[in-house]
Amino acid sequence: MKIGYARVSSIGQNETAQVELLQAQGAEEVFIEKASGTSRRGRNKLDEAIKFARKGDTLIVTRLDRLARSVLDLHNIAGELQAKGVDLIVTEQAIDTSTSTGKLMFNMLGAIAEFESDLRRERQMEGIAKAKAEGRYKGRPPSVDADGIKAALAAGHKPSQIAKQFGVARSTVYRISG
Description:
Helix content is about 55%, strand content about 15%. It is an alpha/beta fold.
């Protein structure tokens, strides 16, 4: 039996394209998850898919990063599948662990994916450090004079007058008022 596993990182993302690719590859059962791939923790549908698989079955994913983002997690998942006699196919990267070449590609691409993730994290940390040094970290400075709006409200001005005076929407005046 071919079992599909689709994962997107957030609720705003859509897994439809992955599911369609998995079904086109013959997946009879598809497990769908909306969770980060940085950790194996909390990925219940992946656990269900692995438990569901039986000897001779194949787990199919569209890309290696849909399965895991670290080499350790990839190897642990591959080990669990291998212990059960379940093969792994990664459609977009032509990986099939039932072959020697597929196993080699699995290991190489897993290491590269982890390396890319580490580089991305390093660049992000450098950008944050630079922004902190320039005093720009944690958002832009307030663009609304909340104290001025409160003072105008206290002076008895109408919200629509205050909105025009400060160049903001009336809803902003109401939000600041309480």
